Amino acid sequence: MRFRPSYDTLWFTGDLVNRGPSSLAVLRFVHSLGERAITVLGNHDLHLLARRFVADRRPKSGDTLEAILAAPDCDELLTWLRRRPVLHYDGYLGYGMVHAGLAPQWTFEEARGYANELETALRSTEFRTFLVAMYGSLPARWDPTLQGIDRLRFFTNCFTRMRYCSADGTLDLKAKGPLGSQSFAGLPWFMQPLRRSLDTRILFGHWSTLRLTIAQSETFNAFPLDTGAVWGDSLTALRLDDGIRFYVPATTREHPLAEE
Fold first, then answer.
1. Packing angle between helix 74-82 and helix 23-32, nearest 10 degrees?
2. Using CB atoms within 10 A of its CB, is residue 118 exposed (0-12), middle (13-18) or buried (19+)?
3. Could you give the CA distance from residue 13 to residue 100 in angstroms, rounded to a whole number?
4. CATH, residue 203
5. Are 133 and 99 in contact (CB under 8 A)?
6. N or C: at which end does the chain have fewer Cβ atoms within 10 angstroms?
7. Domain that holds residue 166
8. What residues are paired with 98 via a beta bridge?
9. Which residue would you say has higher pLDDT here, 84 or 175?
10. Residue 15 within a domain
11. Residue 5 lies in a domain
């Protein structure tokens, strides 16, 4: 089925950049779609912003961002990118979308409020201060009394980096493998028994080694869409109107890039 710009809207789960050799073309394409595209911010998108706006921010191994940083429309594109949400929700369709996940202690409504806090920091005139301090894995567990950059960093790690966590919500940001490969007594964030956002269907990307059956997705209201196209697997789309999935095999396999 072809994309109809006058009728359809494309949702992207983030990481528009740094997942292949054509980051600039992808960013320009999604930007050109205007209101016909909705994208949430991923960890690589935030890293791109830091590369541009934080003095002396060094590239990571495998970065493919230089063409964007050298482009004449770089600042236009990144101003647009900086104003993308970290969480999107459509009440009519009944789906929410993030790049990585939600802390199991959060209701979906709470998550929307926390996303708003993070988006406000990114859109403010002081956004560079946040970009300087956003890197790091601490604090590892949610505490509603967190303030300042600790609070924003935890939000960032949940919305853009998390996969596994323990029952009390402590994040393990090093575990990246498929189900059953983790070396600690944790579960994927969406499988935690006390997860408070279970009543909301959530689309997410980030986890390229995760594979769920349709039954599992429906049980946990969790719909992972990153199926490792950059590693030679396939590109996956879910038609939200009827739940039909579409798969396009990758034509090439890229060299490994940094996951975080």
1. 60
2. buried
3. 8
4. 3.60.21.10
5. no
6. N
7. 10-249
8. 87
9. 84
10. yes
11. no
Q: Is the peptide bond before 139 cis (omega within 30 degrees of 0)?
A: yes
Among 159, 150, 59, 74, which residue's Cα sits nearest to residue 115? Answer: 159
pLDDT score, position 25: 96
Asked whether residue 257 is assigned to any structural domain, the reply reads no
DSSP E strands: which ranges in 215-260?
Answer: 222-224, 234-238, 245-249
Provide the pLDDT for residue 257. 44
CA distance 153 to 118: 9
Residue 190 lies in a domain: yes
CB 149 within 8 A of CB 130: yes
Q: Report pLDDT digits (tens) over 105-150.
A: 999 999 999 999 999 999 999 999 999 999 999 999 999 999 999 9
Average pLDDT rounded to a whole number, residues 25-35: 96
Structure-block tokens of residue 194: 């006390």
Distance between CA 203 and CA 108 in Å, rounded?
13
Q: Encode pLDDT of 44-67 as tens digits.
A: 999 999 999 998 888 877 888 999
Total count of domains within the chain: 1
Calpha distance 35→24 (Å, rounded): 19
Specify the amino acid at residue 165.
C
CA angle 37, 240, 49 (to 5 degrees): 35
Residue 10: exposure state from Cβ atoms within 10 A (0-12, 13-18, ≥19): middle
Phi–psi pair at 59, nearest 5 degrees: -70, 155
In whole angstroms, give the CA distance from residue 193 to residue 152.
Answer: 26
What the block records as the tokens of 234 is 């396939």
Closest to 158 in 3D by CA, of 210, 197, 216: 197
d(CA 198, CA 191): 9
Say if strands 201-204 and 222-224 run parallel, antiparallel, or are unpaired.
Answer: parallel
Q: Is 96:201 a contact under the CB 8 Å cutoff? A: yes
